[in-house]
Amino acid sequence: MLRERGGTWIGWPGITGEIPNEPLAEATRDAGYNVVPVALSETERDEFYYGYSNEVIWPLFHDLQNFCNFEPAYWQAYKQVNKRYADAIIRNARPDDFIWVHDYHLMYVAQALRERTAPQQLSALTFFLHIPFPPYDIFAKLPQQRRLLRALLQFDLLGLQTRRDVRNFLQCVRRVMPDAEVLSRGETHVIQFEKRKIRVGHFPIGIDFDSFENGAKSEAVAQTSRQLRASFPDCQLILGSDRLDYSKGIPERLRAFRDALERYSELHGRVVLIQIVVPSRVEIPRYHEFKGRIDRLVGDINGRFSTSTWIPVQYHFRGLEREELLAHYRACDIAFITPLKDGMNLVAKEYCACRTDEDGALILSQFAGAAEQLKPDALLVNPYDVELMADTIVKAFRMSLAERTARMKRMRRNVRKENVFSWVDSFLKAGANLGGRSSRTVKKRRSRAAFNNPIA
User: Tens digit of pLDDT for each residue in 149-178?
Assistant: First the structure.
């Protein structure tokens, strides 16, 4: 978006301490937009990024409150770093710039801006949350619930992924913020708070469909896909592809696959689960232990069911290059995507875009944001119901080519239409209506302070 429209990206480059100018300038020379780095100390990284962002907000917003560490010092670090981002915006933004803040690391930025800047000096402040927003009974466990909601209500436009996220957010506002008044009419939601109006809406993020489809059609990808299929003759290939994270439901998925093999002998020698786990935060003890749990499940399944000619789980603990990933999307007959909770899950959409033969089945968690767009053609499952997931594997395995094709055609049509560019346009259009701006004005204006969450 910034490359096409121009602007400034403000973000943490992922290293602690002083940021060297020369390597950053070299890495961003041809980006097509300005890059402004925000520096973090090791303590700030540990308490703001690993701490409040990923030991409080991430598990809580994914309904996994037992994984939370409500250390009070984390909140202070979170505010401190958000204030540093606010200072960077003030230094780099002009009054008519479109300011678009992204994700759960930076929910306090608008509060910090309003504490530092006169109202007439501020552009409209907009925010998009990429992860789910939890229902009130989960959100209420957050010690800073009122302070965080008040900070979010300092934005002028709040974007969430799904209608369910919007309902949850409005429910929390009604319960936690008695001074706020929620006015809803259809898909339009306005919150009146502190003599201001805050608009709230759902903006489901998409992918660059054409890029994935064209990549999947390339000869290099086609050849790699054929080689992959040739490695497993007479088998249907099932794909799981996830970052290492407890919210992705990987152990539950492996248990479901094991249950399917136990109860349906017709699968023996005829299906292979290719499970890709991309390393992430392995230095954190909880994640290291989680990887060990996955390793043991894979070992148990392969130890119990393997034969001299068939190994049921192909397990890869590494990231794939783009060409190899697209080849897996193109080669695998079934995508098995079962997060316990997910803001959207773009893997489901990428899989559909790469099914250029319009064949393939998608098993998808009902708690993934993508389920709202891809039902009823995706096979929706409760990721906590191991037996249901096992039965759904068999349903996908037995599904006729005609039914698979009909379902995939409809899903591809949906993913193509609601792509990343329509997501950007819909959000900018909503932002254009703030303060009487015209949509044409926003399209012409440089996004001088569109900025990101810290780089993982």
Answer: 999 999 999 999 999 999 999 999 999 999
